[in-house]
């Protein structure tokens, strides 16, 4: 049975509209409250990013929890990995992060972590979804429970992050782009406290400018500022700061694949876990260093599930979610930036030097917004274009076509030996999808 509420990263949509309308959000809180009732401390920690809808969503979730006899502790403005850390370390039954990550401010979302700090498996989300729909049939009007943020929550998380870096950052000059999001106050404070000289952009949230021309999806401004300031590096986070994209002193964009290679060369695991979206160049560079690669479906939850199943310490996504199992149960942009700085200091090298041997294969990503969703396998013209691309590139390329788990988009990814050939094949596949689904 297809899921109607939960996607690849919780529930996401336009705030105030289904599935983030008040009755559904209230029922979500009530269903979660029932689920945590078995815990000795049936309290859920709630955090949010800077979107203007965050407060009322948090208060509606809290009211739903209260209906089921559970309690809420409000962390206020914090990051997604911050909520995961608090759920794991502060004896909460679960954690809820209210964020739509890299999406515009109109969107929001509800992500759940259990008391171990892990995102819920599909089976548990399916059970919660069924209970939410059941509760919506009952005559319980939605309510809101006023919340006041507990500043101790952020202090605990920032202290933990700082404690993972034993060396001082004195003498290091950084540019931080916090996307006008969850890291806007935590990020600058953390790196300044560690001794770095910090230059900030995207740290003036107003409730509506989150991810707006800044952050991990828009790094041109960060690159320009790094070069203008002569900084050692720049770090860009997304709206909920679970991902990080870096810019080297030379202006090179260092994405999640690069970070995985740098970390793997330090940790030397037998294998690294990445998704089907990671560049073929990462796989080739890892193999050259004697390290294998396991690929999963898109979503850091699937990466961490494979890491746990295979007992591996490192995994992540090209988009900047990097999971260091020694420290965290989910992607953490601030932690990633710290680990990359640590790698540079330990090696006495620059980011550019640390990614030597990584040849990025030309990659084209095309998003096609569809009107009616049908399985890709049932679209003959699309299948024909996919087979043609695979036949042309052979082992020198890859083709991936999938549906987004958070938006009505078909995503086309093509890799190959030249930009021209990749662009042509990606365009042909995308056009076939448009004709079939739009």
Main attributes?
14 helices; five-stranded mixed sheet; TATA-Binding Protein; Alpha-D-Glucose-1,6-Bisphosphate, Chain A, domain 3; alpha/beta; 38% helix; globular; 438 residues; 18 strands; 3 domains; six-stranded mixed sheet
Description:
The protein has about 450 residues and is an alpha/beta fold. It has helices spanning about 20-35, 55-65, 80-90, 120-135, 150-165, 185-195, 220-230, 255-265, 280-290, 300-310, 335-345, 350-355, 380-395, 420-435, and strands at about 5, 10-15, 45-50, 70-75, 95-100, 105-115, 175, 195-200, 235, 245-250, 255, 270-275, 290-295, 315, 320-325, 365-370, 400-405, 410-415. It folds into 3 domains: about 5-150, Alpha-D-Glucose-1,6-Bisphosphate, Chain A, domain 3 (3-Layer(aba) Sandwich); about 165-355, 3-Layer(aba) Sandwich (Alpha-D-Glucose-1,6-Bisphosphate, Chain A, domain 3); about 365-435, 2-Layer Sandwich (TATA-Binding Protein), CATH 3.30.310.50. The relative contact order is 0.10.
Write the layout of secondary structure elements.
Elements: E1 6-7, E2 10-14, H1 22-35, E3 43-48, H2 54-67, E4 71-77, H3 80-89, E5 94-98, E6 107-114, H4 122-136, H5 151-163, E7 173-177, H6 186-193, E8 197-201, H7 220-229, E9 233-237, E10 244-248, E11 253-254, H8 256-267, E12 271-275, H9 280-288, E13 292-296, H10 300-310, E14 314-316, E15 322-324, H11 333-347, H12 351-354, E16 363-369, H13 380-393, E17 398-403, E18 409-415, H14 419-437
Helix pairs in contact: 1-2, 1-4, 5-6, 8-11, 13-14
């Amino acid at each position: 049975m297809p899921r109607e509420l939960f996607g690849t990263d919780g529930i996401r949509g336009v705030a105030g509209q289904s599935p983030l309308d008040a009755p559904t959000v209230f029922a979500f809180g009530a269903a979660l409250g029932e689920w945590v009732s078995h815990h000795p401390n049936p309290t859920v920690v709630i955090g949010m990013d800077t979107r203007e809808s965050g407060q009322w969503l948090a208060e509606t979730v809290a009211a739903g929890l209260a209906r089921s006899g559970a309690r809420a502790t409000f962390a206020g403005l914090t990051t997604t990995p911050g909520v995961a850390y608090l759920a794991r370390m502060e004896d909460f039954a679960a954690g809820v992060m209210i964020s739509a990550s890299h999406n515009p401010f109109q969107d929001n979302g509800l992500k759940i972590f259990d008391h171990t700090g892990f995102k819920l498996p599909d089976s548990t989300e399916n059970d919660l979804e069924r209970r939410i729909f059941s509760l919506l049939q009952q005559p319980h009007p939605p309510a809101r429970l006023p919340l006041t943020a507990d500043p101790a929550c952020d202090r605990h998380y920032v202290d933990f992050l700082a404690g993972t870096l034993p060396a001082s950052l004195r003498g290091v000059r950084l540019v931080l782009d916090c996307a006008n999001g969850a890291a806007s106050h935590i990020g600058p404070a953390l790196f300044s406290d560690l001794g770095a000289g910090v230059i900030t952009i995207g740290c003036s949230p107003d409730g509506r400018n989150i991810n707006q021309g800044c952050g991990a999806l828009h790094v041109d401004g960060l690159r320009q500022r790094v070069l203008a300031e002569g900084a050692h590096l720049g770090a860009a986070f997304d709206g909920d700061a679970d991902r990080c994209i870096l810019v080297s002193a030379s202006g090179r964009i260092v994405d999640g694949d690069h970070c995985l290679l740098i970390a793997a060369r330090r940790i030397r695991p037998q294998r690294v876990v990445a998704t089907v979206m990671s560049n073929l160049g990462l796989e080739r560079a890892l193999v050259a260093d004697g390290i294998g690669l396991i690929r999963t479906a898109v979503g850091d939850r699937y990466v961490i599930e494979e890491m746990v199943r295979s007992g591996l310490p490192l995994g992540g996504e090209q988009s900047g979610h990097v999971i260091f199992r020694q420290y965290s149960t989910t992607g953490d942009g601030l932690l990633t930036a710290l680990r990359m700085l640590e790698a540079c200091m330990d090696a006495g090298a620059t980011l550019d030097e640390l990614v030597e041997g990584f040849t990025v294969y030309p990659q084209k990503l095309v998003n096609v917004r569809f009107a009616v969703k049908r399985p890709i396998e049932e679209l003959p013209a699309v299948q024909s274009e996919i087979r043609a691309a695979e036949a042309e590139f052979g082992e020198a390329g890859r083709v991936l076509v999938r549906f987004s788990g958070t938006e009505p988009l078909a995503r086309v990814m093509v890799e190959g030996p030249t930009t021209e050939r990749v662009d042509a094949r990606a365009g042909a596949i995308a056009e076939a999808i448009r004709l079939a689904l739009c």
